[in-house]
Batch of 3 targets.
Target 1
Amino acid sequence: MQSLPRLHLYIAPSRLQFPLCGFSVELIVDMEIKEPHERTEQMSPLQPTARRIGIDLGGTKIEGLALDSAGAELARLRIPTPQHDYAATVRSIVGLVQQLEQRAGLSSDGKPATVGVGIPGTIVRATGLVKNANSIWLIDQPLERDLSLALTRPVRCANDANCLAVSEATDGAAAGAELVFAVILGTGCGGGIAVNGQVRVGPNGVSGEWGHNPLPWATADELPGPPCYCGQRGCIESWISGTGLASDHRRVTGHTLTGPQIVAAAAAGDAAAEASLVRLEDRVGRALAGVVNLLDPDVIVLGGGLSKLDRLYAHLPALIARHLFGGGALATPVLRAKHGDASGVRGAAWLWPA
Ligand SMILES: [Zn+2]
């Protein structure tokens, strides 16, 4: 016979108010015996249970996170992304959600945790199919529908830069801001928009995706610009990303270095690397000035590998202000993502409102 505290483990709070007549005690004992032993060891009556699960589907890894109702982290897991295999990718996400629920505890009121998934692409509203994914095996697949069916609950998918915007607007660098523009300056460059903490997708699914607009205020030597994988030339992404920085440095100096190597060389006093970073900053400033003149967001948040560069936050306000319509100082804070690399998975969890 189990001790009394263990009898309480799987009883919804409302059940505890019932008088314990002989019949209900027998029923509770029966429920207890059917539960897996490992879960009885992990949970206590006061332990919070998973309300939200966020999944960040990356090209090489899938990260999952379970949050309780207050947004505190309960469990986090990471697995490799199956390469070029859509069905295996779906199975991996489903397995990850199940593992997170097991580790964090199922909701005590019987409601399954909500599931949001950040994807390297977008879901077109009219078709429900994935587009613009650099993990090409996702393209034209009904990922949101397949995950919803497999997990027997509605699942929301959103672009990873939109997840960054939602995460930072919820409890990050832009907490409480009405309109947030978020940029992932990583290997590539993506933009996302959150309005009142909620993702803004748009009928074409490309809200915030200004990375494939042309670099604004381009100089003669920047035209027509490098070819982009999207089919155009001179896209913002082909200039202001880790890849773009490396290509620009190679074009100007003839030396092949990666983005992090250029940053390290500049810090060590290499004048050519420093000049490459100055060009990068100027281009990021121009690209963001275009955003400010269009949207005038309350906060601009930067995430991704290049967002770790401290100098960006010192230099960007003046560089953006140079192209601000009507002039004057920039009133928009430009901030580093508070949750860093975790913002993608946190934002995915917050795709479902409270
Ligand atoms: Zn492009």
Target 2
Amino acid sequence: MIRRLSAHAARYLARLFLLFVPISLSPSAGSRAPAMLEPEPPQVDTSACSVGYAYGGRLQNGFEMPLEGKHHRFTWNVRKKGSNFGTPEMVSLLARAAGVVGTAVSGPPLVLGSISKKNGGKMRPHKSHQAGRDVDILFYAIDPEGRRKRAVGFYEFDEAGRCLHKRCKGWKFDVQRNWWLVRTMLWSKRPQVQYIFVSKGVKRLMLNYARKRQEHPEILRRAKRVLVQPGNSSPHADHCHVRIYCSAKDKRAGCKDAGPRWDWIRRGA
Ligand SMILES: [Zn+2]
């Protein structure tokens, strides 16, 4: 059953990925493949639409992200609530970012908390997560023996990267994998990321690591603005919360952004 589910999930995510591959990956102009080798058009229903604000809207015909794939898992709580639905752009971003990290720095899968329920709307205890454009992401970690581990719960990390909960004594924040995840999302053109809510301590930890590895200055500039400790909820030392902007198509159908629009955000993307 598990194997069948995983194979299904892998096919589903691969089809979804096809929708968002950059043009540059298409065959070069002039090269004509025989008809039988042309790829099938992706059979993915992308009619989902984010309506209204992230903290007061809804999700129409939400797009389901498989509960598990090669590089991700949802928490038990999400399975219970059925909150693994988002816009196609959000699901694509998560699948892509988890895949990039899993390939660049191999290790266990990314653990995801809630996105939204199939039709969005209020979902306790969250204020947002109503329109398929928010997601909670647990941090990658390293155990006391130095082995990469998947997150086991919403446990806080301090500024030195030490896990503060008694159940993860001696565990460390996996700054390499967490930074890869963040930089992949910051660089995404479609969708574009508005916020990554995270504590000041965890933000500093990642930025110090990024500077040390001589990260691209544009990615550093974006990270300084997009990574924010929220003022009106928990400091987010135990997970990060990512919010994406409305897509151009959803905007025309009533999707609404609030807050800053960063100077690198392209119109109509
Ligand atoms: Zn959240």
Target 3
Amino acid sequence: MWKPYRRAIETLQALILTCLPFLTINGQSALRFDIPTLKLYVFGSVIWIREFYLILGVVLFFLLFIAFVTVIFGRVWCGWLCPQTVLLDLSQSITKLFGEKKLKQIQIFLLIPLSALVSITMIWYFVPPAETLKTLFVSTTLTSFFIVLWMAVYLELAFLGRRFCTSICPYAMLQNALFDKDTLVIEYDVSRDATCMKCDECVRVCPVGIDIKNGLNSACIACAECIDACRVLSEKRGMPPFPNYKGRIVRPKTFWLGGATAFAGMILCMLLWNRPPVDFVVIRENALLPSGLNRYSYTIYNNGGRKVALELSSPDNVTLIGEHSLRLQPFSSKNGSILVKSTGRLERLHLNISGGGISINRETGFL
Ligand code: SF4
Ligand code: SF4
């Protein structure tokens, strides 16, 4: 029976997604996109919006991962892991605890608090949980956003539900384009059609309402409910279920597509965790200033999870007018500007930040 495994995986997925925002590494959420500062906290590291190559790397990795999972395992994501499937399945299981009557009405009612939990969890991936709970119903923006999200999630789950999978889900359309003849699918064994009892148990349990006996259907989410239903009856007759998983998992494509995905993941991790702990960007401002005087704006990025104290200096024969001692909190950036005065002739200026084992030099023009 596939159902106990599917429920275990679904419960685990729901627990991980709900609890992950509470996990902090170096004082910051393990995984969160901070909208005001446009930075992504990712398991003890931070990606700034200016680090576009890393964002592209993340996108490329996920595209390869989706292609790998879909080509080899078909719609296993839809039937076993998609948050919509998980929520509908879990709410259905809870509904059954209330008895056998008015299941649909109870589920629709149960989805109200469940949608609220889903909506607040989604917000936690942008605003830390403690801050959300403090400002919810205080901040008008957050409250309005939460209510709109709650309504949207509730209406989608309660009234569109599985029809979303079969009609507008873009991932489902993409999957159908990626399938090949060996992809894992659920198929009815036509060669044994004469012995099928035509009891239609498989049709009755199908969450998307299809009849697998009519052949492969693009709406099938590979949830295996029909296999379990058929198995109950077939095993009594000493035969395997008529619908079953069919496909070839171990084949050349598994290795090259899986290898490419693993390689992209490794490169991404190396790029992410081997970056310098601090980065320093300097730009000369085009301000009209007396001769021998230039203004520079700079940004210092602290990529690490510890505080840093840095000194701004120049090895050139110049005077720096402005703040020299700079302190940065973990995963923070600091913008500033400094006036540079030179009494002699100077074409290139060198600016340096150093402290706590860090030393970074930048070269820029001087007029
Ligand atoms: S549940 Fe099995 S035996 Fe019954 S109709 Fe479906 S495939 Fe045939
Ligand atoms: S046909 Fe079977 S595997 Fe496909 S969606 Fe229906 S119950 Fe799930």
